[in-house]
Write the structure tokens for this entry.
Amino acid sequence: MSNPVLVDVQRGGVTESFHQGAFAVVDATGTVVHALGNIDRAIFPRSAVKVLQALPLITSGAADLFQLTDTELALACASHGGEPAHAATAAGMLAKAGVDATALGCGSHWPSHDRSSRELARSGGEPTALHNNCSGKHAGFVCLGCLLAREQGLDARGFLSGYVQPDHPVMQQVTHALATATSTDLRQAPVGVDGCSIPTFGMPLRQLALGFARVATGQGLSADHARAAARLRKAVAKAPFMVAGTDRFDTDVMAHFGERVFCKVGAEGVYCAALPELGWGVAIKMDDGNNARAVEVVMSHLLATWVARNEADHAVLAPRTTVHMRNWNGIEVGTLQPSAALRAATEA
């Protein structure tokens, strides 16, 4: 059975296109509060789970050893646009650990932020791993690796070699944190390689949402992981620019809501959120892998339904819930909007 339509594309008074998918809203006990579509199919969460992957950075003591700031911890949870402040912050994290960008295993690409990419090219510069949208996450992995190397009396450079591989001690700690937070046996899960070269594990939306409910509340996590999750949420609330960047959904929404919302996009139409006031976790997957065009509409609708409580909240979410599309002459030509099925599921 196919998943329901979550987002409609309207043009000329008719549905021109539509995007199917599923979502789960779960509390920290594992109870499904709201759901639509198949929430038990294994999907790859991709970058949506960076906050869970950053837990060992805190619990290991690496964040304290290297005196990482809230801004740097926020970057460890980021899929950023490669703007100068993002690259500089990642470089600063590495410097504190005594290494440089050559230690990063995420690969290099041009900044996804258009102006930053053009300015880098205009200056004659070339992209480095610092511009990779995952450089903050990987800088966190490197800091963890440098701590582990110190504890074993090993050379950090040698120890970090291959840290993206599943059997490396760094990745084993990261995988353990992800498995315990979501109560998922990742040894039995489908496994692929993410865009930044670390393993990505297939898991149901139900379990992803559970992990984020635990991030929201601390309930169901170990005491160390609960403290780490709270610290990361606070860091992101203080420095939301670092999680995404200019004109990005995650940054704009969290800059407004602060600790009331932690949300994080992943590739291929995945979005997750922790909603501390409600004690809920949210996980969304669009079947066609559509991100900005569809999954943001779903997340915005869910936040507008359950989190927004005043005009200012709705003002932030309204243009992201119903997106008015305009052509190159500025003429409105259509809308992206929540489907009738999505509206009905969230009104129940």
Notes: The chain has one domain: 5-347.
